[in-house]
Write a structure and sequence with these properties.
about 280 residues, alpha+beta, four-stranded antiparallel beta sheet, about 10% strand
C-alpha cells in the first residue's frame, strides 16, 4: 500500500511538472518571442518563419514537423514515454496558438531575455515530468541513430544556427542577434531546472595524512569520505585520495580541517549540480 501511494504521489508530481512546464513554455513564446519576431531556433522557430510568409499558426507548423519524428522514433522512445511526449508536443502546440494571452512587452531586448528564461524553465520542467516536446533534439537522436558519426549536438546546433540565420533575412539582423541571446538563456535555464543549482561541492584531497583528515571530517562534520587508490607518477608512491561531497556552507570548515592537519595538502574543488543519497536529496 505504501509503495502504491508513493508511486501515485510521484506520478502526480510528474504530471504537475509536465503541465506547469507546458504552460511556461507556451507563455515564453506567446507573450515574448512570437510577438516580437524572435526565432530562437528549433521547430518553433521554423514555425515563426513560416508564419511570417504564409500566416500558418506557429504551433501547428511545429507539430506538423514533430509528428513524423514521433512516428519514426516511437520504437526507440518506448510506448509510454513516446505517447506522453507526443501528448506534450500536441498540448504545447495548441497552447502556443490558442492560449488567451497577448504580448507582455514590445521591447525586443526584454522579450529575448524573458522569453528565453520562461520558455527554458518550462522545457526543463517538461523533461523533469518525464516527457519531451520533440523538436531538433529528437531529430538529432534520429539522425545519430542512422548515421553514428553525426552527433545529436551537431544536428541540434545546425538546426538552431540555420533558423537564426534565416531570421536575419526574414526579420532583421537585430532580431537574429537577440534570438541568439534568447537561445543561450533558454538552454542555460533548461539545464538549471533539469539538474538544479550547484548546491554542493566535491573535494578531492591528496595528502600523506589522508587517514587523519578523513577521521576528522567524519567526526567533526558528520560527512562520509571515500578513499580512492592513487599513485604519484613522479614519486612512484601509492597514496589514498579522499573524495568528500559537502554543502556549500560547510566548505570553510572542511578547508580549516585540511589546513590544520596538512597545510601542504593538494585540494581540488568542483561544483556538484545534484547529490543524491544520505545527507542530500533522496534517491527517489
Amino acid at each position: 500500500m505504501g509503495k502504491r501511494l508513493a508511486w501515485s504521489e510521484s506520478t502526480w508530481f510528474q504530471w504537475t511538472q509536465l503541465a506547469a512546464g507546458l504552460l511556461l513554455g507556451a507563455l515564453g513564446y506567446r507573450m515574448f518571442l512570437v510577438p516580437n519576431d524572435i526565432a530562437a531556433g528549433g521547430f518553433t522557430g521554423i514555425g515563426q518563419l513560416v508564419n511570417h510568409f504564409l500566416s500558418w499558426p506557429v504551433g501547428a507548423v511545429a507539430l506538423a514537423l514533430n509528428v513524423p519524428l514521433f512516428a519514426l522514433s516511437m520504437g526507440r522512445l518506448g510506448l509510454k514515454f513516446g505517447l506522453k511526449s507526443l501528448l506534450a508536443s500536441v498540448a504545447l502546440s495548441l497552447l502556443i496558438d490558442h492560449l488567451p494571452v497577448g504580448p507582455f512587452t514590445r521591447d525586443p531586448i526584454l522579450a529575448a531575455i524573458f522569453g528565453g528564461v520562461v520558455a527554458g524553465a518550462g522545457f526543463g520542467l517538461v523533461l523533469r515530468g518525464g516527457a519531451t516536446t520533440g523538436g531538433s533534439d529528437m531529430l538529432g537522436k534520429l539522425v545519430s541513430s542512422r548515421v553514428p558519426v553525426v552527433t545529436v549536438g551537431a544536428v541540434t546546433f545546425t538546426v538552431d544556427v540555420l533558423v537564426i540565420a534565416c531570421s536575419a533575412f526574414v526579420f532583421d539582423a537585430d532580431k537574429a542577434l537577440l534570438a541568439m541571446v534568447s537561445a543561450f538563456l533558454m538552454n542555460r535555464m533548461l539545464d538549471g531546472v533539469l539538474t538544479g543549482p550547484s548546491r554542493a561541492k566535491a573535494y578531492y584531497i591528496i595528502s600523506p595524512h589522508s587517514q587523519r583528515i578523513a577521521q576528522r571530517i567524519m567526526e567533526e562534520m558528520d560527512r562520509g569520505v571515500t578513499g580512492l587508490a592513487g599513485r604519484g607518477m613522479y614519486s612512484q608512491k601509492d597514496m589514498t585520495i579522499l573524495m568528500c561531497v559537502i554543502g556549500r556552507l560547510e566548505a570553510l570548515q572542511l578547508r580549516r580541517i585540511v589546513s590544520q592537519v596538512d597545510p601542504e595538502a593538494f585540494v581540488i574543488v568542483t561544483d556538484v549540480h545534484e547529490a543524491l543519497g544520505e545527507g542530500f536529496n533522496p534517491n527517489n
